[in-house]
Description:
By secondary structure, the protein is α+β, with helices and mostly antiparallel strands. Among the domains are: 137 residues, Orthogonal Bundle (Isoleucyl-tRNA Synthetase, Domain 1); 191 residues, no CATH class; 212 residues, Valyl/Leucyl/Isoleucyl-tRNA synthetase, editing domain (Isoleucyl-tRNA Synthetase, domain 2), CATH 3.90.740; 63 residues, Roll (Ubiquitin-like (UB roll)). The chain is built from 29 helices and 31 strands. The strands form eight sheets. Strands 22, 23, 24, 25, 26 and 27 form a six-stranded mixed β-sheet that branches. Helix 1 packs across helix 26 and helix 21 packs across helix 22. The radius of gyration is 35 Å and the shape is globular. It starts with 19 loop residues before the first helix and ends with a strand. The model has no long low-confidence stretch (mean pLDDT 93).
Amino acid sequence: xxxxxxxxxxxxxxxxxxxxxxxxxxxxxxxxxxxxxxxxxxxxxxxxxxxxxxxxxxxxxxxxxxxxxxxxxxxxxxxxxxxxxxxxxxxxxxxxxxxxxxxxxxxxxxxxxxxxxxxxxxxxxxxxxxxxxxxxxxxxxxxxxxxxxxxxxxxxxxxxxxxxxxxxxxxxxxxxxxxxxxxxxxxxxxxxxxxxxxxxxxxxxxxxxxxxxxxxxxxxxxxxxxxxxxxxxxxxxxxxxxxxxxxxxxxxxxxxxxxxxxxxxxxxxxxxxxxxxxxxxxxxxxxxxxxxxxxxxxxxxxxxxxxxxxxxxxxxxxxxxxxxxxxxxxxxxxxxxxxxxxxxxxxxxxxxxxxxxxxxxxxxxxxxxxxxxxxxxxxxxxxxxxxxxxxxxxxxxxxxxxxxxxxxxxxxxxxxxxxxxxxxxxxxxxxxxxxxxxxxxxxxxxxxxxxxxxxxxxxxxxxxxxxxxxxxxxxxxxxxxxxxxxxxxxxxxxxxxxxxxxxxxxxxxxxxxxxxxxxxxxxxxxxxxxxxxxxxxxxxxxxxxxxxxxxxxxxxxxxxxxxxxxxxxxxxxxxxxxxxxxxxxxxxxxxxxxxxxxxxxxxxxxxxxxxxxxxxxxxxxxxxxxxxxxxxxxxxxxxxxxxxxxxxxxxxxxxxxxxxxxxxxxxxxxxxxxxxxxxxxxxxxxxxxxxxxxxxxxxxxxxxxxxxxxxxxxxxxxxxxxxxxxxxxxxxxxxxxxxxxxxxxxxxxxxxxxxxxxxxxxxxxxxxxxxxxxxxxxxxxxxxxxxxxxxxxxxxxxxxxxxxxxxxxxxxxxxxxxxxxxxxxxxxxxxxxxxxxxxxxxxxxxxxxxxxxxxxxxxxxxxxxxxxxxxxxxxxxxxxxxxxxxxxxxxxxxxxxxxxxxxxxxxxxxxxxxxxxxxxxxxxxxxxxxxxxxxxxxxxxxxxxxxxxxxxxxxxxx
Length: 958
C-alpha cells in the first residue's frame, strides 16, 4: 500500500539531516570500503587463507545460513530475515573478540533452472549464473559482512568434484556392525578372501565370478544400486524420495500423482546409521520440535523378528507385540513383497471362502488385480484408518510357530514394504486395523490379552480391538511355552527367549527410516562418477578423472508422460548423448583401456548441501576435501560440543528431515573414514520465523497488486472494487512481494535491517507492514542528530562527563543489549538501544563523547553503515567492525531504588521507593509506617505480614 516517503521529505530544510539519499550514499561507500579492505576476511590456520597466527589464536565462531537457491524472481523482504540475523550475531561476535567465519554460497543445481531451460532454451548454467549475480547485488546492498573469498556455487566443477569424491567414499565403504562405524570396502573384501568372514550364500570368495562378487558387495556398500520399489512420478519424468511426496501421494513440486514402481536406482544406506542419528541428537543444541521430527522419521521400535514357515521357506515378520503370538490368526504381506508370486498357487485351495478371492477365478488373477489397485495409492492413503479394509487371499497358508496352526496369507494395502519386513502377523483381537480386516474377511479373532474393562474375553461381542500394554496374557500356552498370567513385559521377554532358543526368531530393533533414494532422471545435477562395464558391473572413476563434468545436451528435459499413466519408465536427458555415455577408459585397475557406459541419472539437489559447511572452511583447496587443521579449528569437538559442528546454523524449519538428516549422515561417514573430526555438521540450529504479507483478492478470488490497494473505513478497495484481505505468504504470484531494493531505496538498508529485526522474536512469523518501517528510520535520524548538527554537519559531542542518570541509562543498555544479542533477541536489543537514544534526545544538551561512542558501538551490529559513518565522524580512523563491544559497569546497572508494592487485604494501598538491598525487617518497618497503610488499617490489629524484599509487602489484618 503506497504512502508518501518521509525519508526524503525534509531534505530541503536541513541539508545534513539523515535522509534516504544520504543513507544510500553512506551505505554504498562503506560497502565499497569493506570489500576493498577485506574487512570480513576470516583467517585460517593453514592454506591460502592463512593469516597472522594471533588472529587464529582468538576464539572462533562459525556462523552459517542455509543455502539460498538463486531464483529468477530475486529476493523479497522475507528472504533476508535469517541473513540479517546471522549478520547481526556475527558482527557482535567479532566485537567480542572472536575470529568469525560468515559467508554465503548458492545451492544452484535443481529442477527450477532445468524447467526454465526447457521453456526458453536457455542453458541452466546461464540462467542460474544470471540469477546468482542479481542476488549477490541484492545481498551486498544489505551490508552483509560475508567473507566473499569463501563463496561458491554447487554448480562449480571445482565444488562438485568433491561432491563426487564424497559419493565415491560412500560407495567404497560398508558399515561394520561390530565396530559401529563405516570402513573401507577393501577391508571387507580381504575378510571374504581370507575366510575370516563368511560369504553370504556359503560359497568361497574365490569361487565367485566378478558379477557375483559385485552383487555380494552391493549388499554391503553404503551407496548401492538396486531394483526396489520407488516413487515414480510420470508427470515429472523422475523418481522421488519419500520426503518429496506429499501426504496425499502427489509430488511436492508440481502436484503430480506418484506411483509405486520397481526401478533400478542408486540408494544411500542411511539406515545403517539409524541408531547413531538418534543417539547423537541428544548432544545437539537444536529446537526440540526439530529433534522430535527426526526421531519420528527415524522411528525406532523394539520387538522381535519371527519366522512363519511356509512351503519349506519362511515369511519373516517384525512385531513389537511378540507376546500376542498365540493370537495370530492370519498373515498379511505388502502387495509389493517379493515372495507374493512365489506363494501364489495356480488354483484356490479347497474350501477357500468366497470373500477371500475378490471374485477372481484364480489366485494369480486376484493378486495381479489387487496389486494394480494398490499401486495407485500413496503410502498415506494406504495407512489411513478407513472403515472398509481391502485385500485378497494369496492361496497359501503359513504355520504359526507357537501354536502350529495353519494361518491364511493375504496381501493388503495397509501393510507397506517401507516398514519392518513388509509382512505382518495379524492379531485381530488386539489391533484395530487387523480387527476390521478380520471382520470384513470372516477370519478368526482370538483374545490373548485379558481386557481390563467389562467387555469379557469373547471377541465376537466386541465393537473393536482391545489394545493394552498393562494387562494379563491369556489363552497363550503351547507344548513347551506358556505366557498365561504374565504381564506384557514379562511375556515379551519369555517368548523372545523361546524363539531365540529354537532358532525361529530373535529380539531386534526396527526403524521406520528407509534408505535414501539418490537418483534423479534430470539433467541439471551432479553426474555420478560411475561407469558400467560390458557385464553391467559398476566401477568408480579414479580421483584423477574428477570432476566428471556435465556434457552439453540439446534437450534438457527428462521425458515426461501422462501424469496418470503408471505403466511408464524414466528416460533421462543424459542418455540421449551417446558420445558421452559410451566411452573407452583406463581406470588404472591394471586391465588397460576398456569400453564403459556412464551412469545417466544425476544426483538429487540435496547432494551439494550435504557437505557445503566443509567447503566454506577451505574453499580453494584442490588437493583435499578440507585441510584437517582448518576443519579441526572451525568445526572440531570442544567443551559443550562433543560432536563438533557449526556454532550457529540458521534456516527454515521445513528442512527438519530432508536436508538436516542427509547432511548428518554424510558427516558421520566422513568422520568414520577419518576425513573430518566433527561427527555432526551443525551443533546449534535456530529456525527463524517467516515474514508474511497481506494478500488481497477480488470477487473472483484472484490476487490483486497489494501496493495499489486502498483502505477506506476499515475496508479495502482495488480500482474501486472491494477486495478481501488475508494474511499469507509473500511472493510474486500473490502480488504482495516487497523487494529489499525498494525499501533500501526509500529508507536505506540500515532501516530495513532494523525493521526486520525489530518486528518480533526471530523464531516467530510476523506480518510485513511497509507503513511501520518509518519508525526505525526515525530512530536512525534521532541517533544521527545526537552526534551531528543537521544544519552544519559538525559533530556536536562534548568531552565532558555524563551525569549519573545518563550513566545508568547507558550501562543498563549495554548490559541488556549484550544479553539480547547473545541470545538472538534482536527485537528487545533494538528496544533498549531506542530507550537509550530517546534518553539522550530528551536531555536536550550535547551528548558526552564517551556516551555517543558507546551508543554507536551498540548500534554497529544492527545498523553497520551509519555506525561506520558516525564512528569516522567521531574521529576514529579504523573500522567499527573490529572495535570492542562496550562492557557495562555493574555499579550503574543495579537500580538505585526499586518500587515496592504494599498490599492490605490483597489490595494495593501504597508504593514505596526502596533500596534493592533492603532487608525484610527494614522493609516491613517502612511499610507499616507509611501514612496510606496506616489509614488503610484504620486501627485494626495485624495477624500476619508477608515480606518479599524488595518488591512486595502483604499485610493481613487481624
